[in-house]
Amino acid sequence: MSTPLKGFKAHLPVKPCVHCQRPMAWRRKWARTWDEVRYCSERCRRAARGSQPCAT
Questions:
Q1: Residue 2 per-residue DSSP state
Q2: Phi then psi for 25, rounded to 5 degrees?
Q3: To the nearest 10°, the Cα dihedral for 37, 41, 43, 15?
Q4: Angle, alpha carbons 46-56-5 (nearest 5°)
Q5: Are the C-beta atoms of 17 and 44 separated by less than 8 Å?
């Protein structure tokens, strides 16, 4: 392992959630679909479909 893990999260890509506009950082489970990820959570995805404001 050539990259130290301490402080590594600061170097991950970040983009805003389409619904709540909060920043969401890259996650390993999104590695293959990062370009397609639009919502930070299941709650925001459901709220956006019903066009209700997210209370987070």
A1: -
A2: -90, 155
A3: -60
A4: 100
A5: yes
Hunting for tokens 């709540």 — which residue is that?
20
- Rounded Cα–Cα distance for residues 26 and 23 (Å): 10
pLDDT tens by residue, 16-40: 999 999 999 999 999 999 999 999 9
The two three-digit tokens of residue 10, written as one number: 């600061």
Note the pLDDT of residue 16.
96
Global pTM value: 0.67
Contact present, 17 and 40 (Cβ < 8 Å): yes
Q: Is 1 helix (H, G, I), strand (E, B) or coil?
A: coil
Give the model's pLDDT for residue 41. 93
How far apart CA 29 and CA 19 sit, in angstroms, is: 20
